[in-house]
Amino acid sequence: xxxxxxxxLCKKYPKIFVERNLSPQESCMHWGxxxxxxxxxxxxxxxxxxxxxxxSHNDCVRKGYDWAVKAGEIPQFVALQVxxxxxxxxxxxxxxxxxxxxxxSHAEDLSYSICEECGQMNEEVGRNTKGWIQxxxxxxxxxxxxxxxxxxxxxxxxxxxxxxVRQDEKEAAEKAEKEFAKERGDKNAxxxxxxxxxxx
Length: 200
Ligand SMILES: [Zn+2]
Fold this sequence. Notes:
6 strands, three-stranded mixed β-sheet, alpha+beta, binds zinc ion, three-stranded antiparallel β-sheet
């Protein structure tokens, strides 16, 4: 991930990335967020949800709410290593609770649908089937010959549904453009007959 984006996340979530400035012998976080820029928003949302959950729960413990005191404080979630493996996000950590474990697992699953280079998330995202496998859009595929989109790989009706959706979108855009051109044409005709309306 670009240094500026890495810095931004580490500064925004200092408790989560507390190991970022340790030596390579002390923590894998020394190497930073070892994923592409395309997963920035995925990580930003994940870290936001995790820290908010911990802070609000532990605040309730401090205020002495029965249910929160009974559950106990949630240990601070700390990132141990963030990297890409077999085309998916891997987020190793310590601390947190069951809910946070679910959040991390969900983000890791989502990464398989998001281009690691540019963040695109639609029916054109997939992966190459040979070599270094990476989740990407068609444009950022490492090897376009072996590239397969997630939707087509499923071999179900979804590919056909998306094709129809894109066709409908294209037709609607063309129709809107035609109507706009007609309106603009009418305006031009008015101006030819009566001059610039703004001078009236
Ligand atoms: Zn891309």
